[in-house]
Structures are given as structure tokens and as C-alpha cells.
Amino acid sequence: MKFYYSKKLTPFTNLTHAFTSRKSGNLAFHVGDDELSVEKNHILLANTLEYQKETLVHMKQIHSDLVCIVSDEKFNAPPTCDALITNRPNTPLMVMVADCSPVLFYDDEKKAIAAAHAGRAGAFKNIVKIVVDKMAKAFGSNPKDMQVSIGASIGVCCYEVGSEIYKEAKALHLEYAMQKRDDKFYLDVNKILKKQLIECGINEQNIEIFNECTSCNTHKYFSYRAEKQTGRFAGVLMIKDS
């Protein structure tokens, strides 16, 4: 399996994390792939990252701003939401993507983590702020103590949107993340996410963004925009039991 690692998260020896790739195989059950094949990919991933597959919590992602505090959720009963937070050790969290931004959070002071799915809808709804607020309320997390890593996603080079999206962005004062080229509009989701994270109180030096476009690099990642029918790669984060 081929993984990519966060420079912000790697130094913490009490964490297990990875961003998977196309070479890690499809991890989503809802995209028409053979379920046994997907199951095998999850088993291999769990064995490689050394966690129990049944303890992994993933999501039924719906492009919402819903954030779930993980308690006793299991692999075969994923919650319907677009972000997960927990302070439970040995409970890996997973966000699956194929153009949207996979966002991993870690608070080393309170030993709490989060995984969020942030595409255009999530960015427009400021899901990262809701994650930070919920971590503060549930675990006492201070944004100043958080490290954030945003994995590969579609870039402004390829993310063409309609004029109605530009109007929506302008109404939300997000037009700074729009580019206009040849009378077409392009959206920079990560530019929005970074600004929102900083506005939450997270130090800019604690924010990492993988500047690789999934649509430009379909040999490395799955891309819904480029391929339509395709798999999902993932961001995974877990606190190890000390």
C-alpha cells in the first residue's frame, strides 16, 4: 500500500496516521466496487497501520456540517456526518475523499483528534470551525494547541464551478477564493479552509496543506471530477494507547 504522511503529525509518537492513495485501493463501499475487494483493502490497511479493523470509525458523508463525537460506533455502522472527533485511544477515525479535502486535527495537550470531510459545501458551511468548537466543548481543547493537516484535494487549477457558485461565495464573503479565467470560475477550497482555521485561533505554522491536485494526478489519487465513477482514498488518524 502506498501512503503519504503529514509533517505536522509524524513527530507525535503516540499517533498513527496516514493519507492513503490510489495504490492503497478503494476504501468506499458506496461507489459500485466489489464489497469483498473493499473489505480486503480495509483489512490490509488495518494490518499495515496496526489497528483492529472493527474499531475503525468512518462516515456516511453527505456534504453537511454535522460533527459526531465518537463513543461506541463501529466499522459496520458508520454515523451519518462529515466530521468525527474523539479522545478515545485505539479508535481510528477515517475520512474518505476523491477531490474534497481530508482534514486531520490533533490536540496534543488534551490528546484529542478529529477527521473532517471538507469539499465546497463543507467549506461554505465552515465545518472546520464546528470541529474546533466541538473539540473545545467536549475535550477542553484550545485551538492554539492544534495541529492540522489537509491531504491532497482538487486544486483551483481544475475546480471549475458555475456562476451560481460564485454568487453564493460572494454572498458568504468568500469571493477571495475564486479565480476567473477565460470567463470561467474556479474555486480554491483550501484557501477558504486555511483562512477559517486561522480565524478559529489555530496558528498558521500548525497548518499543513498538501498542494497536490487530485484531478491533475489521477495516477496517484482518485478524482470524482476527472473520472466520475471512481474509488475513494482516505485520511486516517488514531491515538495509540499509552
Q: How would you describe the overall organization of this protein?
A:
It is a single chain. Strands 3-4-7-6-8-12 form a six-stranded mixed sheet. The protein has one domain: CNF1/YfiH-like putative cysteine hydrolases. The protein has helices at 35-49, 120-124, 127-139, 163-171, 189-199, 224-227, and strands at 3-4, 15-20, 67-69, 83-86, 93-97, 101-107, 112-118, 146-150, 160-161, 178-181, 184-187, 207-209, 233-239. It has 242 residues and is of the alpha+beta class. The longest helix is centred in the N-terminal third of the chain and has 15 residues, at 35-49. 42% of the residues are buried. The protein is built from six helices and 13 strands.
How would you sum up the global shape? globular
Structural class category: alpha+beta
Oligomer: single chain
How many domains is the backbone divided into?
1
Question: What's the helix-strand series?
Answer: EEHEEEEEHHEEHEEHEHE
Average residue pLDDT:
97
What percentage of residues falls in helices of 4 or more residues? 10-25%
Numbering strands along the chain, what is their spatial order in the largest sheet?
3-4-7-6-8-12
CATH topology: CNF1/YfiH-like putative cysteine hydrolases
Number of helices: 6
**CATH homolog superfamily:** CNF1/YfiH-like putative cysteine hydrolases
CATH class: Alpha Beta
Task: Tell how many strands the DSSP assignment holds.
Answer: 13
Major β-sheet annotation:
6 strands, mixed
The CATH architecture classification is: 4-Layer Sandwich
Strand content: 15-25%
Global Rg: 17 Å
Distance between the termini: 27 Å
Low-confidence stretches: none
